[in-house]
Amino acid sequence: MKVKICGISNEIDALTAISLGADCIGFVMGGKVLPIEVEPYAQWVRETIKKFPKGVDSFLVTHLFDADDILDLSNYIKSTGIQISEDIDIEEVKKVRKNTNKKIIKTVVTTDPKATEKLKLYEPYCDYFLLDSRDSGYTGGTGKENNWQMCRRLIDMTEKPVFIAGGLNPENVKGAIEETKPYGVDVSTGISCYSERYLRKDRKDHNKIEKFIKIAKEY
Fold this sequence. Notes:
Order of helices and strands: EHEHEHEHEHEEEHEHEH
Number of strands: 10
Strand order of the largest sheet: 1-2-3-4-5-6-9-10
Low-confidence stretches: none
Structural class: alpha/beta
Strand content: 15-25%
Number of helices: 8
Mean pLDDT: 90
Radius of gyration: 16 Å
């Protein structure tokens, strides 16, 4: 079972997750103001990725819509993969695919009425799918538990490896895996710390990471 730890915001959390067995690390980047994202946030992401051991993937998890912006940011931080979180125009996805050999994950919202249609639309241009939840118009990182039965149906509809996400945590990951039988699991909010001293999801709980990975790796 592959484990992707997402929403990483500092080097200590990234390297600790890797030491505990994480296969992939996701950095959420790329909003409406790209220059601010690149300076200085992307610099430390790039420097952190340099310290990853061989075999551990680094993913730019982006909400950008333009293929050139996505590729420029991924190339800047030198990530080994790109996760396209938004339902961007298929021509933009094709452009990303054409211009990179990086691993591509395409997010699909499980409860989207057109989820099946989108699986087939994006399938030729991605290496993996990630089935996630949506809350208040925002995809991913919501902490809202996904519909695992629907995930199972969607997994059966594609030949591509599928990660599941959406409200996963050390307490429910076992049941979610058993119900969906995915290729991998992705977690962010479910392993986060909460404190008035810093913003929500700004730090990860290393004990939760360890527990989550240990459970997932039993499969």
